[in-house]
Every structure is written in C-alpha cells, then in structure tokens.
C-alpha cells in the first residue's frame, strides 16, 4: 500500500509522523509480543497491510487494511503474486488499482508465497467488501516470525490511521 | 502566491466541507477530490447520467483588453482570433518563442469586438505563477514596441483581491438545471446556445436581496468532461450563493458536487489533456495531436506570426511530403489486464521502448483500461499493437482513437462529436 501511505502522509507534517508515532508503536508492539500467550494476533504495517499468523503455525495471511480499502475507493483490479515466489520483507507482491490510483502491496515478512486469492481476479471489489476477510491477498510461509514483532497491533494501528486522517 | 506549505482556498471551501468533501492539494489550492455521498466511480457515472458541479475556482481567469489585445494574444497563441466572433471561444495554447513548446493550455473567449477588443482567458492553476510571469513579460515587450497597439492584462478579482469564482456544471441534465435556475429577466434560449459559446446570464438567488437576481455571470457552454455543460465565471461575492442556488433548485436527485477524482477520469475518457502530465514545455501542439487548434488562417507565411511558428509550421507537413514532421505523437491507448499509469514505458512488439504513458486509469464508463501517451511517429495510427510495461509485465496496448467515450456537446442540428 505504498501509494496510499504516500497520499496520507503528504497531508501530515512528516517529522511528527516519524519522530513520535513510529517508535511508540514499535515499542508497544514488541512488548506485547513477548508477553502475550497468543503470541501473534493480527498485525498491521505502516503501509496499511495486515498479516495474520496464527500461533504455532508458519503460514500467514496477508491483505490490505479496512482503512486502506476505504481510502482507495472502488477497487477495479488486483494484481496477485505468483505462487512459489520467494519474497523478502518490503518486496512488492502485488497491487490494488482503483480509478484514481495504483498501490503496491508490500509483504510485511520474508518467506514464500504459497497461495494467492485468485477470487480477486474475477471480483476485485471483494477487497472493498471484506478487506480483512474474503479480500485477503496472499498466504506466505514465514521464514522468520520475529519480523512481525515490529508491527502494530490493532489498537496501535487504529490510532496510527486515525492520526493520518486528522 | 499560494504554495504547498500555504495552500489557498476557493470561495467554496466551507461549502465543500459542508457537503463532506475530502480535500487534497492541487495547483497550490486545497481542493475537493471526492465527497462522502459518492465514490469516485459513482461520481463519474453520476456526471455521465445526470449532472455534477465541479469547483474550478483554482483556475486562473484573466481579461486581455485594448486595441492591441487581439494581436498580442495572436503573438503568443496559434488561435485564429481575427475570425473569432464575439461570444465564441476555443481551446488554445500559450507557446514559447522558437521551440513552440506549450507553456500552458487555455480557453480564449472573445467578449468584446474591436477596436476595443476584450478577451477572457482561463489558464491552469498549476501554472499560475509561470503563466503570470510569461504573460506579463510578453506584454511588457509588446507594449514597449511603440508600433504595437496597446494591450492590458487584468486578473479577474474584486478590489480586495478575491478571485472570481469558476464552477463547471456538467452532465446531460445541465441545460435543464441551468434553465430552471435562470432569473426571469434573463432571456436566453438554451436550445440555440451552442457548444463553444459564452453568454452573460443572471440566476435567481434566494439570498439575492431586492429582485433576487444575481450579478451578471459569464457562462460558456462546454467543459472538461465531454458532456454537455456550462462553466460559470461568478463575481466573488456571489460564488457561494450561485452554487447553492444551483444545488438547491436542481435537488440532490439531479445534481451533486463532484471532485478532482471524477474530473480526471472523465477528461481522460473525453481524450482531453491535463497540463503537466500530457502537455509540457518540451511538447509542441503538433506532437500533442493538437494541430486542429491551428486554423488554416494561421498557417500562411503572412499570419504564422505566433511564438514558435518557425518550428511548428514545418512540423505540420510530414517528412514524406517534404516537411519536418514530428518524431513523436500523443495517442490514446486501450490496455489489457492491468491499468497503465503515468510514467509507464510503452514498447513495440519486439520489446523496444517507443514511448511513455502520460495519463491512465480504468475507464468507469467503458470498463476497460484507457491511457494517453507519446509514441514514436509511425506507431501512432489507430489499431497499432504495442505494449505497456506495468510492474515488470508487458500488457498488450492498442492505439485507440480519442475521445474514448464520444462527446455529447450541444451543437444543435450538428452531429455530436
């Protein structure tokens, strides 16, 4: 969701964005990770992807956040990753296109793409209807689960995206 | 001068917020990109089926007047102003000397006939500062030459510096909506008011005091969507009242606000250029497929006196016929699979780069991906098969005649087109 992030940050004082928001979230997320029994509930990136890695498993589901889907507007085309592709954290694994913009989907983790949600090819609008459910984009076999530690939990992401809106 | 750090507001800023606008910066102004009632795609469809109001008050409006106004403007643009009747307008371009590069595109309307010529000029918000510098410097040079009859340039604003409002009423219901909003004292015949014509009108203003009649508004039939419509230049103190009067008299079943999001996809379907993307100072009107804005009368040795004519006139004749021709041309493209966007590399069937995309989006009306771009001369004919590289993959692209969606201008008995 690089383009969405760019659009949103443009209207914000960049320094405030970087200096205050990010380290706080990072800290909070890391702390929770080490203490929680269900170690990794759904996490969010600053680029507005979500990743869900159920406890004890190695395959994570990745998609774009409800906030991002709303900011994009009507999704008319989704480019999906190719199954079996090895990806590194931050790589573009696909794209979401609305009338007004194209946004890359960046993988929050390193690993291998094991499944892509091909239903989105026929019904791209599923991303708008259910961005964090049926509108998932890819399943990735995670190499290093520790990469999720730096990501925001739901509460942190909520205040992050609310700040982007203000 | 407004900047990105200190964006300007049009007179309608508060009204936009009242209608749930999402504001973004554009051309140094805070402008609505969409409104909470309709998504960009829905607003686009609404404009094609009913009618929308766009605030285009960020654009820059000038009067150019005086005995030298016609000749002065003809020195900067290839427009045929000598033959332009009063009340008529047309698309033109401000041109650089020698190279003929496009400084900006503009609409020029003749409001008053000679000898005291009066022209109304509308230019782009994104070029505000540069156009002003260009026009001022050119005018000074013009007036310094005592052979030239004098011309004056005036930005349209009131005595406290507020710019005139500019709104675009666009869509098939536009004429009906405008007709219902006219003040009874304003007798214009909408059926005989054709595309490319401007008139002075007045509207009924519920808030308008005494007779409830607005001040005179210069309204031009045309716009930037390909639909029938009108652009209204409104005295600063009444911009809000006029906009409200239109919205209220038409009602929300017919007329809604639309933002820059829908404006961009509508103009692209209509095959119209966006300056800074599809046009810039490195491009001549011939390369930009805008040769049609240069009438025959301006192509003769005697009358091709505009900036850059020495470059542009030879380009009008292809090399095969002994002219200079051009090496690239603006074309329309229909792209398969993913939508092409600005900056996308256009390649030929062998994978060799032959141009770049300058605008692109999925067309809400056609449900296929459309784009504009520049390709090597020779590859510009409709039906030519090319490809656009999108995220590393080549997507088939076919050169397509523009407009992508046929225009529905009001031309009376003349076939729309």
TrEMBL record, chain A:
Pfam families: GCV_H (PF01597). SUPFAM superfamilies: Single hybrid motif (SSF51230). Residues 59-141 form the Lipoyl-binding domain. Its main location: mitochondrion. It comes from the Eukaryota. Gene3D superfamilies: 2.40.50.100. Its cofactor is (R)-lipoate. One of its GO terms (biological process) is protein lipoylation. Binds 1 lipoyl cofactor covalently. The modification N6-lipoyllysine is found at residue 100. It is found in: Mitochondrion. PANTHER family: GLYCINE CLEAVAGE SYSTEM H PROTEIN, GLYCINE CLEAVAGE SYSTEM H PROTEIN-RELATED. The H protein shuttles the methylamine group of glycine from the P protein to the T protein. This is Glycine cleavage system H protein. It comes from Polychaeton citri CBS 116435.
From TrEMBL, chain B:
It comes from Polychaeton citri CBS 116435. Its EC number is 2.1.2.10. One of its GO terms (cellular component) is mitochondrion. The keyword Repressor does not apply. It comes from the Eukaryota. Pfam families: GCV_T, GCV_T_C. Keywords: Aminotransferase, Mitochondrion, Transferase, Transit peptide. InterPro entries: GcvT, GcvT/YgfZ/DmdA, GcvT/YgfZ_C, GcvT_C, GCVT_N, TrmE/GcvT-like. It catalyses: N(6)-[(R)-S(8)-aminomethyldihydrolipoyl]-L-lysyl-[protein] + (6S)-5,6,7,8-tetrahydrofolate = N(6)-[(R)-dihydrolipoyl]-L-lysyl-[protein] + (6R)-5,10-methylene-5,6,7,8-tetrahydrofolate + NH4(+). It is found in: Mitochondrion. This is Aminomethyltransferase. Residues 328-405 form the Aminomethyltransferase C-terminal domain. PANTHER family: AMINOMETHYLTRANSFERASE, AMINOMETHYLTRANSFERASE, MITOCHONDRIAL.
């Amino acid at each position: 969701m690089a383009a969405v992030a760019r659009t949103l940050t443009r209207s914000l004082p960049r320094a405030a964005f970087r200096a205050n928001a990010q380290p706080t979230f990072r800290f909070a997320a890391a702390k929770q990770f080490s203490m929680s029994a269900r170690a990794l509930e759904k996490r969010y990136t600053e680029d507005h992807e979500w990743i869900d890695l159920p406890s004890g498993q190695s395959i994570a589901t990745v998609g774009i956040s409800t906030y991002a889907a709303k900011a994009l507007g009507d999704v008319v085309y989704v480019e999906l990753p190719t199954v079996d592709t090895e990806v590194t954290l931050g790589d573009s694994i696909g794209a979401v296109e609305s009338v007004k913009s194209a946004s890359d989907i960046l993988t929050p983790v390193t690993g291998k793409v094991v499944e892509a949600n091909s239903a989105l090819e026929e019904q791209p609008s599923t991303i708008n209807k259910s961005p964090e459910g049926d509108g998932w984009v890819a399943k990735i076999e995670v190499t290093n689960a520790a990469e999720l530690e730096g990501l925001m939990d739901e509460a942190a992401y909520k205040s992050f995206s609310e700040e982007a809106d203000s | 001068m407004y900047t990105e750090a200190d964006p300007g507001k049009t007179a309608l800023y508060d009204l936009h917020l009242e209608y749930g606008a999402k504001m973004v910066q554009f051309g140094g102004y805070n402008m609505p990109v969409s409104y909470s009632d309709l998504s960009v795609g829905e607003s686009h469809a609404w404009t094609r089926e009913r009618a929308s109001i766009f605030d285009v008050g960020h654009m820059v409006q000038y009067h150019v007047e005086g005995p030298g106004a016609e000749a002065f403007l003809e020195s900067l643009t290839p427009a045929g102003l000598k033959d332009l009747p009063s009340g008529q307008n047309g698309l033109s371009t401000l041109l650089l000397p020698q190279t003929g590069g496009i400084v900006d595109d503009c609409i020029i309307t003749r409001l008053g006939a000679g000898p005291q010529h009066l022209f109304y000029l509308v230019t782009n918000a994104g070029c505000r500062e540069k156009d002003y510098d260009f026009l001022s410097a050119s005018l000074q040079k013009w007036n310094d030459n005592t052979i030239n009859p004098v011309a004056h340039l005036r930005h349209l604003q009131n005595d406290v510096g507020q710019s005139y409002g500019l709104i675009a009423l666009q869509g098939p219901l536009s004429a009906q909506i405008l007709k219902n909003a006219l003040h009874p004292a304003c007798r214009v015949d909408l059926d005989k008011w054709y595309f490319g014509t401007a008139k002075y009108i007045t509207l009924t203003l519920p808030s308008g005091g005494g007779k409830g009649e607005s001040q005179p508004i210069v309204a031009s039939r045309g716009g930037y969507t390909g639909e029938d419509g009108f652009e209204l230049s409104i005295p600063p103190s009444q911009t809000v009242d006029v906009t409200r009067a239109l919205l209220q008299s038409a009602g929300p079943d017919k007329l809604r606000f639309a933002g820059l999001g829908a404006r961009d996809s509508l103009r692209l379907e209509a095959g119209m250029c966006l300056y800074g993307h599809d046009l810039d100072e490195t491009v001549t009107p011939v390369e930009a497929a805008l040769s049609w804005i240069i009438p025959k009368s301006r192509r003769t040795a005697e009358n091709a006196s505009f900036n850059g004519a020495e470059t542009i006139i030879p380009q009008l004749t292809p090399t095969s016929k002994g002219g200079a021709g051009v090496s690239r041309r603006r074309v329309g493209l229909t792209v398969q699979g993913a939508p092409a966007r600005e900056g996308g590399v256009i390649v030929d069937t062998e994978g060799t780069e032959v141009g770049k995309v300058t605008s692109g989006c999925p067309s809400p009306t056609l449900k296929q991906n459309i784009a504009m771009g520049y390709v090597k001369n020779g590859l510009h004919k409709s039906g030519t098969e090319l490809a656009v590289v999108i995220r590393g993959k080549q997507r088939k692209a076919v050169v397509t005649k523009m407009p992508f969606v046929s225009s529905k201008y009001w031309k009376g008995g003349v076939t729309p087109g």
